[in-house]
Amino acid sequence: MTVLVTGGAGYIGSHAALALLDAGRKVVILDNLSQGHRWAVPAGAAFIEGDCGDYDLLRRLITDHDISAIMHFAGSIIVPESVVYPLDYYYNNTVNSRALAQAAVDAGIRHFIFSSTAGVYGEPAKTPILEDFPSKPISPYGTSKMMTEKMLADASIAHDMNYVALRYFNVAGADPKGRSGQTSRKATHLIKIASQAATGLRPHLEIYGDDYETHDGTCIRDYIHVSDLANAHVLALEYLENGGESDVMNCGYGRGFSVREVIAAVKDVSGVDFPVKLAERRPGDPAALIAGADRVREKLGWKPQHDNLEVIVRHALDWEVSLKTRQVVDAA
Ligand SMILES: NC(=O)c1ccc[n+]([C@@H]2O[C@H](COP(=O)([O-])OP(=O)(O)OC[C@H]3O[C@@H](n4cnc5c(N)ncnc54)[C@H](O)[C@@H]3O)[C@@H](O)[C@H]2O)c1
Ligand SMILES: O=c1ccn([C@@H]2O[C@H](COP(=O)(O)OP(=O)(O)O[C@H]3O[C@H](CO)[C@H](O)[C@H](O)[C@H]3O)[C@@H](O)[C@H]2O)c(=O)[nH]1
């Protein structure tokens, strides 16, 4: 009874693997290392280098490792890149997910947990965003994830497999014990970028627009600590194993911070007053995205431990410093 974690050499997958191991589960990680790192695979997890779209490999490893459930993190994650290379995103996020779902169904896997995104909502008319708001993604990235959600919904009706698609809001921070953190080679995420500016890896930070209809003109997001998110996956697995019905669930705390508030927190926690410049709006950024976060608490019994911006920032900064001392350069 082992959990297959695709993308487990990446940021969120490595934290989920840690949470599973901490909960006493056996873990096999499948990652093609296109973005992840071999050193990010937690001690105690088996590792297979390969592609989550490789049906034959999947069938073999499911049998060889007695896989009973799949957590599917592998994918391409940069929204603006998906606008430039949409077909790459549909291939990696949708076509490869189809192959994985096929292998799962053919091998009799009964539980499937999928990394989805608040990006499926596009530009919602209001916040907080509830799961039954319409899916109207505005980027190929969001559409590629929405399509996988729909495949899983249909497959779960036709086959003996239940699933949970967790729609993450803005994931940030790092393992409190320092075992993993944000490692993506092309990080675009605000708290990562601000942490890099605070630790001298970047000369400055740019604010993408300050003329949004928010209290200080900058965009508001619901930042969720990666370890709280990882725990939601462990709970989702228990829920499915106990016969829970298939569902989609937002993962956020239900509150938001503006870009300026995040920058202030990073400056405050780090004690570094790094330069900040104002830049043009980034295309496709909605003004405010805040999760309606009741479902994940009610259905999974999820109780976040790190719902505190300073704590999230502290852990992100500690991780950046540890990367520097390990001389692991996360090239921008
Ligand atoms: N980071 C966020 O804020 C965020 C928000 C919403 C959803 N998500 C989703 O969460 C998942 C994990 O994101 P992350 O931030 O950890 O990204 P990441 O890039 O750190 O991790 C993704 C991992 O998947 C691997 N991978 C990519 N394509 C693969 C393939 N075809 N076969 C095998 N391995 C492959 C990469 O090498 C990498 O290790 C993604 O599916 C992403 O869309 C992330
Ligand atoms: O250097 C930067 C980086 C970001 N921002 C701003 O900070 C906010 C957050 O941006 P991120 O890039 O950190 O995150 P996004 O909200 O764009 O997107 C993230 O969350 C989404 C869901 O809300 C999707 O899941 C997506 O995959 C994930 O990258 C945005 O207003 C952005 O314009 C800046 O001002 N400067």
Structure keywords:
binds nicotinamide-adenine-dinucleotide, 39% helix, 18% strand, globular, 14 strands, three-stranded mixed beta sheet, UDP-galactose 4-epimerase, domain 1, 2 domains, alpha/beta, seven-stranded parallel beta sheet, binds galactose-uridine-5'-diphosphate
Topology of this structure?
Layout: E1 2-6, H1 11-22, E2 26-31, E3 46-49, H2 55-64, E4 67-72, H3 79-84, H4 86-106, E5 111-117, H5 140-158, E6 162-168, E7 170-172, H6 190-198, E8 205-208, E9 220-221, E10 223-225, H7 226-241, E11 247-251, E12 257-258, H8 259-270, E13 276-279, E14 288-289, H9 294-300, H10 309-325
Parallel strand pairs: 1-2, 1-4, 2-3, 4-5, 5-6, 6-11, 7-10, 8-13, 9-14
Antiparallel strand pairs: 9-12
The structure holds nicotinamide-adenine-dinucleotide and galactose-uridine-5'-diphosphate (GDU).
Catalytic activity: UDP-alpha-D-glucose = UDP-alpha-D-galactose
Protein name: UDP-glucose 4-epimerase
Family: Belongs to the NAD(P)-dependent epimerase/dehydratase family.
